[in-house]
Each structure stands twice: as C-alpha cells, then as structure tokens.
Amino acid sequence: MNVRYRVELSQAERDELTAMLGGGKHAVRKLKRAQILLAADRGRRDEEIARTVSVSLSTVSRTKRRFVEGNLERALTEEPRPGAERKLTGKEEALLVATACAKPPAGRKRWTLTLLADTMVKLTDHDGLSGETVRRRLAENDLKPWRRDMWCIPHVDGEYVARMEDVLDLYAETSDPARPLVCSHGD
C-alpha cells in the first residue's frame, strides 16, 4: 500500500523556507528538502516534485513523511547514519599505540601503516585489518610513527601496556561530561 502524506505548511513555516531558499549558507540537501516541502504545500504531485528538484521519489516521500510525523525541523535535518562498528577495542587501540611507539621490527627503519596493520593481526584475533583503520586510530591519538621527531615511549613492555589499558578503562567508564575524570597525586 502506498501511503501519501499531505503537507500543509503554516504561513510562518512557508516564510522560513522561502527565506532559507532566498539566501544564506545551507547544505544542498537541506535546500532540496525545503523545495520539496514548498512544492508539496502547493499541491504538486510527488513525481513532478522529484523531477523538478532532481531527487528520487523516495526522498520526496521520506521528506513529506518526516514533516507530517514530526515537524519542520525534523523534515529539514539529516538523520544520523549508522556507521560500521569500530574494528579495534579500547585495549586493542592501546596495543596499537604501544606498538607504534615501539621500535620497528629488525630490518625496518620505521613503522608503516601496512606493517602496523599486519602486526596487529598477529597480536589480536582479527583476520585482517586495513592500513586505513590503523591510520584513523593513530590520527585520533595524534600519532605519526613514520616521523622521527614524534614523542614515543622509550621502553614498552607488558607492564606498560597493562597500565595503559587501566587508564583507558578509566576514561571509558567516565564518558559522562557532567562527571569529569580528575586525577591527582597525593603528597
């Protein structure tokens, strides 16, 4: 069954959409949604709107549905898109950082993304890991192991990795911004 949503804008909503289309900086997707809503309010057919605004019929239907079921703001804004789950856990990221900060294998002058990815596959249960995943995790930690002037830990051993995991676990537990993590050393 094909459900048709009827868009009836208030004068204030029409004015807001017209002003949005008249100037200022807005994302193209948001502007197209505004055009869809205005055209639907004037009684245009979905096929005509899709052709005029250069979008698919599903975009027209989805925009109208979000307006009718929600409000103008919901119809204009982007819904969050689900991304892929992170490949590395917090502990695996700690291991990656520790590995990147350690000396590269014998015969290598420095770590490469591919070499780090291959090493992580050997050290973890992953069947494969891309250099891009490694690059993103290193970038989050502002690490560049291919540069010689970066800060690194001089000696990485099991005890260091265990301590690093403990610290990362603390940060993971206190992700509430209302309750910041505060550490201090006693006298």
Verbal overview:
With 187 residues, the chain is mostly helical. The chain folds into two domains: 11-76; 90-173, no CATH class. Helix content is 54%, strand content 0%. It has nine helices and no strands. The chain has helices at residues 11-22, 28-41, 46-53, 57-69, 72-76, 90-101, 113-123, 131-140, 158-173. The longest helix has 16 residues, at 158-173. The chain is elongated, with a radius of gyration of 26 Å.
Give a short synopsis of this structure:
The protein is built from nine helices and no strands. With 187 residues, the protein is mainly alpha-helical. The chain is elongated and about 70 Å long.
Record keyword descriptors for this entry.
single chain, 187 residues, mainly alpha, 2 domains, 9 helices, 54% helix, elongated, Transposase, Transpos_IS630-like, Homeodomain-like_sf
- Please state the average pLDDT score: 82
Q: Which consecutive residue ranges, at least 5 long each, have pLDDT under 50?
A: 181-187
Number of structural units classed as domains = 2
Q: Please tally the helical runs, counting DSSP H or I stretches of 4 or more residues.
A: 9
Distance between the termini: 73 Å
| Gyration radius from CA atoms, angstroms | 26 Å
Structural class: mainly alpha
Find the count of extended strands (DSSP E, 2+ residues).
0
Work out the helicity level. 40-55%
Instruction: Based on Cα principal axes, name the global outline.
Output: elongated
- Helix-strand sequence: HHHHHHHHH
Largest sheet: none
**Beta content:** under 5%
Pfam family, one: HTH_32
Organism: Bradyrhizobium iriomotense
Protein name: Transposase
